[in-house]
Fold this protein.
Amino acid sequence: MPKRRQINSTERDGVNYVRNVIKHANSIFNEIHRENDYGKTMDL
C-alpha cells in the first residue's frame, strides 16, 4: 500500500481543525480540494 506524503497528512489535520472550529461556530464550511483550487476570489 502506498504511503501518503507527510505534507498531505499535515494538510488534512489543518483542514479538519478549521472545519471543526467553523462547525462549532454554527457556520458553513465549504472545502475546496487542492486539485480544484484555481485561486477564485470569493464574492461577499
DSSP finds one helix and no strands in the chain. The mean pLDDT is 80. The radius of gyration is 13 Å. Residues 22 and 31 are 11 Å apart (CA to CA).
